[in-house]
Amino acid sequence: MSQLEFDDNAARTLEAMYLTPDVVGQRAKVIEMLAPAPGEHVLDIGAGPGLLAYDLARMVGESGRLVGLDASAAMLKVARTRLAAMPQAECMEGDAADLTFPDASFDIAVSTQVHEYVADMEKAVKELHRVLKPGGRALVLDTDWRSIVWHSSDKARMERVLQCWDDHLADPHLPATLGARMRRAGFRVLRVEIVPMLSPRWQPVSYAAGIMKTIRGYAAANGDRHGLSKEEVQAWYDDQLRLAERGEFFFSLNRYAFLAMR
Ligand SMILES: C[S@@+](CC[C@H](N)C(=O)[O-])C[C@H]1O[C@@H](n2cnc3c(N)ncnc32)[C@H](O)[C@@H]1O
Q1: Would you list the domain boundaries of the chain?
Q2: Is residue 75 within 6 Å of ligand 1 at its C-beta?
Q3: What are 183-242's pLDDT values in tens digits?
């Protein structure tokens, strides 16, 4: 397994991908599910470039509090710039599996596309539960990469590329066990929603177009273990461009949002 490094370059790429309509729609869904109110205290674990944190900080207002926590200094730099004008918002370095806040500190704890990277998930869910006030809401959203439907002219090669890509996560199938894990930690799971990343045809500004480039880079650097040469990875990528030109591109992948109460 070789996890993605969230450096300056990754932070810029991720920010661009997370400004595409698919992920803008995801944030609207997360906000609808959490319904943050003015004055509430919110923790965003793995806040990344701070796009969701920005919306949440505006919703809780100056009588509330928003803490954006992340393990990556490069991500925190982007988030701090985005949140700079809001006194209710602060960013800090930290680990999802080892939160430094006292018990019952927050009304809301949210974490999107983060726990799939966390090796000690048992501890991370316990921590999520611990820092919430009784009655507080948690929302955890992750991708299950088994849900992917991605058309290719070479099915076997596509499978090998996706197997290689699975290595970038601690658990590429986390949603399948997430509800049970949250219940074991003492949560009441209230609602589960699918958030699709869907490109039924080629869309240059889309999650699919962005992740395609990221997967090409990752597989070119880490493909050896799966018998993938750099040339094969490039051929996989070129095939997608050809399908796009011919009007035959199709990409569909599900993220799963779990809303729970402590
Ligand atoms: C795919 S990004 C998602 C960012 C953001 N939550 C969003 O949805 O826009 C994953 C983020 O999780 C952070 N991360 C990964 N492992 C972490 C951990 N153990 N503790 C805190 N943050 C972590 C990364 O640095 C990165 O910013």
Answers
A1: 8-261
A2: yes
A3: 999 999 999 999 999 999 999 999 999 999 999 999 999 999 999 999 999 999 999 999
The alpha carbon of 71 and the centre of ligand 1 are apart by a number of angstroms equal to 7
Is the distance from CB of 204 to CB of 17 less than 8 angstroms?
no
- Of the CA atoms within 13 Å of residue 106, those in its CB half-sphere come to 26
Superfamily of structural domain 8-261: Vaccinia Virus protein VP39 (3.40.50.150)
Q: How far apart are CA 53 and CA 149, in angstroms?
A: 30
Residue 68 and residue 79: Cα distance in Å, rounded? 8
DSSP 109-153: EEEES-GGG-S-HHHHHHHHHHHEEEEEEEEEEEE-GGG-EE--S
Q: Which residues contact 164 (CB under 8 A, 6 or more apart)?
A: 218, 219, 222, 223, 225, 226, 228
Q: What is the pLDDT, as a whole number, of residue 17?
A: 82
Residues facing residue 138 across a β-bridge: 109, 260
Tens-place pLDDT, residues 96-139: 999 999 999 999 999 999 999 999 999 999 999 999 999 999 99
In this structure, the residue with its CA closest to atom 27 of ligand 1 is 48
Q: What is the mean pLDDT of residues 38-45?
A: 98
Instruction: Give burial (CB, 10 Å; 0-12/13-18/19+) of 231.
Output: exposed
